[in-house]
Amino acid sequence: MSPLSSNAPHGQSTLRTVQVLGGGNAGSSAHVRSLAEGLVARGVRVTVCAPVEADRAYDFTGAGAEHVHVPRSSDPASVAALRAACTHADLVHAHGLHASFRAVLALSGRRTPLVVTWHDRAQAQGARAQFLRLLERRVVRTAAVVLGASSDLVDRARSTGARDARLAAVGLPGYRRPVPLDDPDRLRPKVRAELGATGRPLLIAVGSLDRHRGYDVLLDAARAWRDLDPAPLVVIAGEGPQRPVIQRRIEDEGLPVRLIGRREDVPELLAAADLALLTSSWESRSVLAQEAMYARVPLVATRVGGIPDLVGDAAELVPYGDPEALADTVVRLLADSARREALRESGVRQTAGWPTEDETVAQVLSVYDELTQPRPLA
């Protein structure tokens, strides 16, 4: 009988797993919270090693897991804390490149199986990109199994030297999905008024204000919308290092764009929007794309990474770095209510084929089972 069973036979202990997080990625943190809850419900002991801020935000202990504070750093003290937490683990599962590298260091000299999930790709250029590539190689050649959130991540792991790389089933946690609002007809005008979008189209983008999000391209496209009557309002929810640069351009060029900072009411923002915009240079399973399609909001996204596989024909895709294509697509969609409705209906069909949280947990459990089951003697 498998040690994954909550009803393990006499003398066989419950499977003990450690989930390792860097704490910097909202998607991977939400995934680990959902995974921990599903594993605990199936009788698996789960310890989550992550910065204390991540536990405050995602409540791993509320999911039934034990939380151990491990700073988002690869210094000796952090590695030692992680090594101690992994002492009695049957298996360690790390999420993201930096967390995975810390796990490799912490497990050095031990035979504890390591599973790695890549939720996204590290964004860097020049010497730092070469350094990150070295980390990737070290991680994938150590891991027993690498799970990639998109097919291109799986291909990347294989080309880097992974012994076993597979496509991960990563379902969007239920608490991240927009739910039907009690009174959308009343709330929608209220949200639009608060944002300054009364009597004009509202376009929503959500994500950290980092270079790879492509907001420079979005601002270029917004120039074409200044002369429309009424001009659409672009609202960007998020924070990050590019905020001063973006804000300066908005003011200097008189662009119809507002920065509203990090928000906890993204479902309400999406419910009020006419279109959702995703302009990144690369994404795997974009949380915004999933939230928008669950909310039945037409999506315009860049044709990069895992986006085409994720959205199928349920979104308008444009090339990355092409502001004219983005601007033209948005103008065309705003003028075509039938096409917007068709995208909503396609989105319902597309989301029905996405993995559920239960399917995500089941896949992970099957991997754990492979790696922890005793092998029969030849």
Automatic annotation (TrEMBL):
Glycosyltransferase subfamily 4-like N-terminal domain: residues covered: 27-171
Glycosyl transferase family domain location: 192-347
Single Gene Ontology MF annotation: glycosyltransferase activity
Gene3D superfamilies per UniProt: Glycogen Phosphorylase B (3.40.50.2000)
InterPro entries in the cross-refs: Glyco_trans_1, Glyco_trans_4-like_N
Domain of life: Bacteria
SUPFAM superfamilies named in the record: UDP-Glycosyltransferase/glycogen phosphorylase
Record key words, sorted: Glycosyltransferase, Transferase
Protein name, UniProt field: D-inositol 3-phosphate glycosyltransferase
